[in-house]
């Protein structure tokens, strides 16, 4: 979630900072194609379970990719699936966009934290990656080219956040860059 926009919530839940985000934890109770049930983990759960946030993070890093596998979908396929575009393809000049989420498409931005996922995708595309924080449910990946306009992309993210998402769904107002060379994400 957005670190800046969730200050009240973060007083009550265990979290770790990641860029301008806060990584929070949920306990998955049920997941199916139709629905998902989970409980936000609060600080009092750690006391009840006699554990700490480091252990929680280690377990989440292991379990989440297994329970909620990553899913990469071309944006054009997703838009067709949602019947938002006609059968005609996007213009060839448009950069390829990919939606990265989990198989349930809920809280899918977490996939960014899966070990080696960005390395594998950047190797697949043979490019660095631009990451648009679409919402807490997914991120949009663009293979990076030399002439990408980060200011323009940041403006687009901010506009979508302010007009299309509820406050709780906003991930970040910043565009991220994944470097193939360093294996690091930066804003």
Q: How would you classify the helix and strand content by structural class? A: alpha+beta
Q: How would the global form be characterised?
A: globular
Q: Tell me about the largest β-sheet.
A: 6 strands, antiparallel
What topology, given as strand order, has the largest sheet?
5-6-8-7-9-10
Helix percentage: 25-40%
What sequence of helices (H) and strands (E) makes up the elements?
HEEEEHHEHEHEEHEE
Would you kindly provide a brief summary of this structure?
The chain is built from 6 helices and 10 strands, in the order H-E-E-E-E-H-H-E-H-E-H-E-E-H-E-E. It has 187 residues and is α+β, with helices and mostly antiparallel strands.
Describe it.
The protein has 187 residues and is an alpha+beta fold. Helix content is 30%, strand content 24%. The strands form 3 sheets. A 6-stranded antiparallel β-sheet has the order 5-6-8-7-9-10, with helices on both faces. The longest helix has 15 residues, at 53-67. The two termini are 16 Å apart. The mean pLDDT is 87.
Characteristic terms for this protein:
187 residues, alpha+beta, six-stranded antiparallel sheet, 10 strands, 24% strand, globular
Describe the SSE topology.
Elements: H1 7-10, E1 16-18, E2 21-23, E3 26-31, E4 36-40, H2 43-49, H3 53-67, E5 70-74, H4 75-81, E6 98-102, H5 117-125, E7 129-135, E8 138-143, H6 150-164, E9 176-178, E10 185-186
Antiparallel strand pairs: 1-2, 3-4, 5-6, 6-8, 7-8, 7-9, 9-10
């Amino acid at each position: 979630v957005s670190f800046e926009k969730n200050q009240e919530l973060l007083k009550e839940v265990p979290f770790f900072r990641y860029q301008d985000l806060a990584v929070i934890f949920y306990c998955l109770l049920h997941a199916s194609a139709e629905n998902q049930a989970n409980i936000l983990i609060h600080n009092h759960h750690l006391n009840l379970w006699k554990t700490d946030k480091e252990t929680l993070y280690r377990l989440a890093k292991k379990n989440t990719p297994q329970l909620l596998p990553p899913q990469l979908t071309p944006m054009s396929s997703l838009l067709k699936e949602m019947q938002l575009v006609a059968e005609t393809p996007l213009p060839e000049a448009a950069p390829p966009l990919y939606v990265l989420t989990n198989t349930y498409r809920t809280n899918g931005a977490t996939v960014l934290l899966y070990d080696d996922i960005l390395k594998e995708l950047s190797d697949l595309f043979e490019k660095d990656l631009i990451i648009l924080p679409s919402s807490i449910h997914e991120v949009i990946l663009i293979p990076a080219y030399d002439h990408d306009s980060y200011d323009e992309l940041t403006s687009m993210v901010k506009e979508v956040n302010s007009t299309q998402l509820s406050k709780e769904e906003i991930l970040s107002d910043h565009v991220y860059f994944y470097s193939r060379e360093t294996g690091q994400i930066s804003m």
